[in-house]
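--- STAGE predict ---
source: upstream dedup step, 1 unique chain passed
mode: sequence only
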Amino acid sequence: ALEGALDQKLTDSIHAMDVRWDPRADVVVPARVQVVGEATFRPARTSDMSVGGVALKMGNPPELGTACVVEIYLPVGGSARVVRADAKVVWVGGERGRDQTGLGLRFTELGDTDRARIGAAVREQLVLGEEGGGLLGSDTEQGGDVPPEFAVEGD
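--- STAGE serialize ---
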């Protein structure tokens, strides 16, 4: 119980200070979230990410503290791959007048290959985004060849 309380206190403190250990960029791509113990994935869309975690927009988000699996359809360097991570919900917040709710996930387990892919996507967006390109202008944002399991309503 003490370890859980300390973890929550640390998470609350970091969130309050908005401390970032890793570079973060506005990477908007399809994703999906599966709550541990549930059989189905829920569709989502990333709004920004780093190798430490991801912010998502989704309907019916999991509750704060929930353990889940996130899969992100990530186009990098001209090809797309699905990255997968175990994660924990560290914040949930809505936007007025929107159907989607903001959600923050901290990665608790992320393989080296997927960490490298996310790092590459963030770097690409930070560099190319300043020039008006990058992932935000990719085919996935314009309804390109996204696998059906990553379809988000309204796309």
